[in-house]
Design brief:
Layout lengths: L5 E7 L8 E6 L2 E5 L15 E3 L3 H6 L3 E5 L5 H4 L2 H5 L6 E3 L1 H14 L8 E3 L5 E3 L4 E7 L6 E8 L2 E5 L17 H10 L1 E7 L12 H14 L4 E4 L5 H13 L3 E4 L2 H13 L9 E2 L12 E5 L7 H8 L13 E4 L8 H13 L3 E4 H4 L8 H11 L3 E5 L3 H13 L15 E5 L2 E4 L8 E4 L2 E2 L4 H13 L1 E9 L4 E2 L4 E5 L8 H21 L4 H20 L4 E8 L2 H19 L1
Parallel strand pairs: 3-5, 5-6, 6-7, 11-12, 12-19, 13-16, 13-17, 14-15, 14-16, 17-18, 24-27
Antiparallel strand pairs: 1-2, 1-20, 2-3, 4-22, 8-9, 9-10, 10-11, 20-21, 22-23, 24-25, 24-26
Helix pairs in contact: 4-8, 6-7, 9-10, 12-13, 15-16
Subcellular location: Cytoplasm
Pfam families: Lactamase_B, RMMBL, RNase_J_b_CASP, RNase_J_C
GO molecular function: 5'-3' RNA exonuclease activity; RNA binding; RNA endonuclease activity; zinc ion binding
């Protein structure tokens, strides 16, 4: 490998929300920055989560010096279970981040190697063969978030992770501005900066203001309060616990996941609350509604579906009733705003009312446009690579940087799989790195691809049609009338004529195949499928998945039965 090779690899996390993973290569060492997941949208039928391309590790695992984590949210640590299942790679992060990473990995693999995890802090500097990696405090909705600096001979490459600026932030959430200034004096070659909230024109409300607002909501609620929040938003959890204590309420944690996270954070001192504040589901009947707070974080940290179950009396613990206040204490993304409206409607139908934090306060764990410009002015990077955000947000980030004085030629809008190579003082695109999605469905990793998803989409739209026929291939004839069935296509009892006509089409396709082609199972099935698809589309304008099942009579058994009958006739004749 050529000496002084410096590359920035965009594995995933651009032109999308979540699934953050980037890498910096210095000579023959690769430093991976975050390893997150994202939750699927409605087009990914049946997919549980989406993670970065695992082919990246298959290709480069022998060069990877470590995975460096910025914080403990799923978009930063969620892919670790699937990476560490096959590769022994060292993982570095703050105390809380590593504790949450271990919990995440343990859910998928109880026998994971604990010695791969290393706790560092903002003062840590790790020397590798070709580069030094250091860290700095950032502000986010989870404590002990860190930015990462890869020190190279050509200058520092800085990755912010998710961040914002909040001068009033509490101790474990405070950005170290002095450290940022120090990094700037060393020279910043490239800045990989969070773009998630780049469109915001006005500042985020301070967490102190939000804490006061949460307490007001609790004080004014006459009945039970059901809080919908993300388990990983420690700022919001602490505000809920504080408000519950001040209004003399008890807190019920509804899921195992949030229970483990809260216990871990309490043990490490990142959350503070009396143990007496919490109750379990068996104690609910001991308290009046006005004494209760139910904290619902939902499966994988998404609480809206759980709220819908509560409103429809399908939740395993809680049903919403008259007098309940549902407090949505998370800021929904644009993708789920419709779902929030639907959920609110269900809550009102069930007798409850809804209060949304996002309507009262502008809050986000991500930098506003002003924050991004302040970071650029502080670090003075030679090059900017906007990351973590959908395409429009990367472009907005680019415009903000230009307005802050950067040259447009020094800003790189990338896509997943891009690899930027430093040559003669500038970055140029070189051979791409693996940058496709790896989809997780149940225990399967990457075994669901575009073809499977296309079939699932067709099934969801037009259903499935099953055609069953039994043939005698030697005599080239159909033994019995074909049987047909469908699911999600048409109601069979109301479409008997269509079913009967389809049987005739199946018979005709088989006869035509027998007459004009040398027998081949695959060709026969394809002919049946093609004929049925064309006929059904002509009749219904729908394209169900057609599944032909062609069976053959057992010739040996058929001969044996005939011989047995012949023997019986002979015996009778005697």
């Amino acid at each position: 490998m050529a000496e002084n090779t410096i590359k920035v690899m965009i594995v995933s996390g651009v032109r999308e929300q979540g699934k953050d993973m980037f890498a910096v290569q210095v000579n023959d060492e690769i430093f991976v920055l975050d390893a997150g997941l994202k939750y699927p949208d409605s087009s990914l039928f049946g997919i549980d989560v989406v993670i970065p391309d695992m082919d990246f590790f298959a290709k480069y695992s022998d060069k990877i010096a470590g995975i460096f984590l910025t914080h403990g949210h799923a978009d930063s640590i969620g892919a670790l279970p699937y990476i560490l299942r096959n590769y022994d790679i060292n993982v570095f992060g703050s105390e809380l981040t590593i504790a949450l990473a271990k919990l995440t990995v343990q859910r998928e693999n109880r026998r994971f190697k604990k010695n791969l995890f290393h706790v560092i802090d903002a003062e840590s500097e790790i020397d590798f063969k070709n580069a030094t990696v250091s860290f700095f405090h950032t502000t986010h909705s989870i404590p002990d978030s860190l930015g990462i600096v890869v020190h190279t001979g050509a200058g520092n490459i800085v990755y912010t992770g998710d961040f914002k600026f909040d001068p009033s932030a509490a101790k474990h959430y405070r950005t170290d501005m002095d450290r940022l200034a120090q990094i700037a004096t060393q020279g910043v070659l490239a800045l990989l900066s969070d773009s998630s909230n780049a469109e915001a024109d006005f500042p985020n409300a301070s967490e102190k203001d939000i804490a006061r607002y949460v307490q007001e909501v609790f004080a004014n609620a006459a009945g039970r309060i059901i809080v919908a929040a993300k388990a990983s938003n420690f700022t919001r959890l602490q505000q809920v616990f504080d408000a519950a204590k001040k209004t003399n309420r008890k807190v019920l944690l509804t899921g195992r996941g949030v229970g483990k996270i809260v216990r871990t954070a309490l043990d490490l001192g990142y959350l503070t609350a009396d143990k007496q504040l919490f109750i379990d589901s068996k104690e609910l009947k001991k308290y009046e509604d006005k004494q209760l707070v139910v904290l619902e974080t939902g499966r994988m940290g998404e609480p809206l579906q759980s709220l819908q179950k509560m409103a429809n009396n399908r939740h395993r613990m809680i049903s919403i009733h008259d007098g309940d206040l549902v407090f949505i204490a998370t800021t929904p993304s644009h993708a789920v705003e419709t779902m929030v409206a639907q959920t609110s409607d269900m809550v009102y139908r069930a007798g409850g009312t809804v209060e949304q934090l996002a309507y009262a306060k502008h809050t986000s764990g991500h930098a506003t446009g002003r924050d991004l410009q302040l970071l650029i002015a502080t670090l003075k990077p030679k090059f900017l690579i906007p990351v973590i955000g959908e395409y429009r947000l990367l472009e907005v980030h680019r415009d903000l940087a230009i307005n802050a004085g950067m040259n447009p030629k020094d800003i790189y809008i990338t896509k997943n799989g891009d690899c930027l190579n430093l040559e003669k003082g500038r970055f140029y695109l070189t051979d791409p790195v693996p940058g496709e999605d790896t989809m997780i469905d149940g225990s399967g990793v990457g075994d669901v691809g575009n073809i499977v998803l296309r079939d699932r989409e067709i099934l969801s739209d037009d259903g499935i049609f099953i055609a069953v026929a039994t043939i005698d291939r030697k005599k080239k004839k159909i033994i019995a009338t074909p049987k047909v069935s469908s699911r999600g296509f048409v109601y069979i009892k109301a479409n008997r004529e269509l079913m009967n006509e389809t049987r005739k089409v199946i018979e005709e396709a088989i006869k035509t195949n027998f007459e004009h082609k040398k027998f081949d199972w695959t060709e026969l099935k394809n002919d049946v499928r093609s004929s049925v698809e064309k006929f059904l589309y002509k009749q219904t304008n729908r394209r169900p998945v057609v599944l032909p099942v062609i069976m053959e009579v057992n010739q040996n058994r058929h001969r044996a039965m005939n011989k047995k009958k012949e023997n019986q006739k002979n015996k009778k004749a005697e």
